[in-house]
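Explain this fold:

***
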Amino acid sequence: MSLKYALLAQLARNPETGYGLAKAFAGSLNYAWSASRSQIYPELARLLEAGLIRQTESGPRGRKVYETTPSGLAALRRWLRETEPVRFGRNEWLLRIFLLWLLEHEEAEAYLRREKGLLELELEELEAIAEEDDPQTPAARAAALALEHGLRGLHARLGWVDWALAEVASWPAASSES
C-alpha cells in the first residue's frame, strides 16, 4: 500500500518516467522503501486509472512521463495526516539474532562481524550522500531528515554489534539450551 504513496510523493517532487522512478527506488529511496520495476509499472497504471497521476509526455519506445494530480496530492496528504505507519513487522535480521544460540561461538561471532561490515559499508554510502547534500527545498530538507535518521540508526546499530560481540564472547563454550 505504501508504494502508492511513495510514487505519488516522487511524482509530486518531479515529473518522472517509470524508468526514472525505478532508478530512484534503486538509489537513496531504497533505504526507506524498496520497489522493483515489476511493482512500479502496475502501480503507475492503477494510479493513472484512479486519476491520482496524469501522463504529461510521451516519447520514443513507449516513454511516458507522469506527474501527481491535485487529487493525488490530496490523497497523499490525507494518508500522511490520517493514517499511522506500520511500526512492527517481520525482521529477519532480528530473528537471526534471536537464533544465534544455535550456532557455535565462532559462527555467531563471524555472523556479527559480517553484519558489522555490512553496516559499515552502508554507513559509508550514507556519509557520502550526506557530504554531497545541500538541501535547499522542503523536499530536499525532508530527505535530509531521513538521511540523518539513517546515519544515527547505523551508528546505534554499530555500537550494538560491538556490545553483542563482547556478549557472545562471554557465552559458555557449550550451550545448555541446544
